């Protein structure tokens, strides 16, 4: 069902994380946008490998590896961001986002978009993040599972019970009735059993061999903290809303602390979106590959505008995009 685009004036940019990638992402955009082409070219130069070809041609198995997913999604998201700036400059529109947020790895993209971190530093950090997470996963094998149809309180209760056999906990609180849990394999399997017994609508083991957003990522988090200490993190041009506590991040120090903590803490995505809405954001634009976050926003509050910039039907390269621009006040 089409969502009506209502008049808007306060733009919230939201950036996807790992899992939104797909072969071909950004290819059509790069064909029509010089700004996007320049982002992919610069990324290839900085990484000294052909990341753009991996994004556009695959193979899927290589693109899905954690070490590749993260920089590929980051670069594609920044390419869309620069293409949007290019587009609006061409029609005389000013680019003035009101708030920024990212889901998991997307927080690094949001930090770059908000001017806290340079593109070069952001790419280096995300590239290292993927490698560090893979290494932590080899040392502490774990997994993740999606639980649909149970309230968060019940999921927390299930995790507490299953944790008697080792850590498992809430990794993502995406929207009402949609949670992701993460932890060691034995307690994870136990939690999945308990969720099924509690009549969850669906319980699915995710094709991930690491326990993201859990204590299993402690070593990776330490590695990221060391890298962040060497990076200049500036005050954002407008606040970010963090995953950890859904708090407004107004200073470089607050952004840096968020990025240090996020690997071992859960993603409070519903609270993040609600905080942005309550602060006055009235247009949520998902900047990057896919439309996962847009669908979540619509489940959290269907009354607010939400559009995925890369969507073939309503995104920036579609005819319907004109409705988004026409509704801007």
What would you say this structure looks like, in words?
It contains 14 helices and 10 strands. It has helices at residues 27-32, 34-47, 51-57, 60-63, 66-90, 106-113, 119-139, 152-162, 185-197, 218-228, 252-261, 269-279, 292-300, 321-326; strands at 11-15, 99-102, 142-148, 168-175, 178-184, 202-205, 240-241, 248-249, 283-286, 305-308. A hairpin with a 6-residue loop joins strand 7 and strand 8 (248-249). The two termini are 25 Å apart. Strands 2-1-9-10 form a 4-stranded parallel sheet, with helices on both faces. The chain has a 4-stranded antiparallel sheet with strand order 4-5-3-6. It has 2 domains: 11-137 and 215-323, Malonyl-Coenzyme A Acyl Carrier Protein, domain 2 (3-Layer(aba) Sandwich); 142-205, 2-Layer Sandwich (Alpha-Beta Plaits), CATH 3.30.70.250. It is globular. It has 329 residues and is α/β, with parallel strands linked by helices. The longest helix has 25 residues, at 66-90. Helix 7 packs antiparallel against helix 10.
């Amino acid at each position: 069902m089409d969502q009506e685009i209502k008049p808007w004036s306060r733009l919230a940019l939201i950036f996807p994380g790992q899992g939104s990638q797909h072969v071909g992402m950004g290819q059509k955009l790069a064909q029509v946008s010089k700004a996007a082409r320049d982002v992919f070219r610069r990324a290839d130069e900085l990484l000294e490998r052909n990341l753009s070809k991996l994004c556009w041609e695959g193979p899927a198995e290589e693109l899905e590896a954690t070490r590749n997913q993260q920089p590929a999604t980051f670069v594609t998201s920044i390419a869309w961001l620069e293409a949007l700036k290019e587009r609006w400059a061409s029609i005389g529109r000013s680019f003035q986002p009101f708030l920024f947020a990212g889901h998991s790895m997307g927080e690094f993209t949001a930090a770059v978009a908000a001017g806290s971190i340079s593109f070069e530093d952001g790419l280096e950090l995300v590239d290292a993040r993927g490698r560090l997470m893979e290494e932590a996963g080899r040392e502490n094998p774990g997994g993740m599972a999606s639980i649909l149809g149970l309230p968060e309180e019940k999921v927390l209760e299930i995790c507490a019970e299953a944790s008697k056999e080792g850590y498992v906990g809430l990794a993502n609180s995406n929207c009402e009735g949609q949670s992701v849990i993460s932890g060691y394999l034995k307690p994870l399997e136990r939690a999945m059993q308990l969720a099924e017994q509690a009549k969850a609508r669906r319980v699915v083991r995710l094709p991930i061999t690491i326990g993201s957003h859990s204590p299993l990522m402690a070593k990776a988090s330490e590695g990221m903290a060391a890298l962040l200490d060497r990076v200049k993190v500036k005050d954002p041009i407008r606040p970010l809303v963090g995953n950890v506590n859904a708090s407004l991040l107004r200073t470089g120090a607050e952004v840096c602390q968020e990025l240090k903590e996020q690997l071992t803490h859960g993603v409070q995505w519903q609270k993040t979106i609600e905080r942005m809405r309550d602060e006055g954001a009235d247009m949520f634009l998902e900047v990057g590959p896919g439309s996962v976050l847009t669908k979540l926003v619509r489940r959290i509050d269907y009354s607010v505008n939400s559009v995925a910039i890369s969507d073939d039907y309503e995104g920036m390269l579609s005819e319907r995009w004109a409705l988004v621009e026409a509704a801007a006040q």
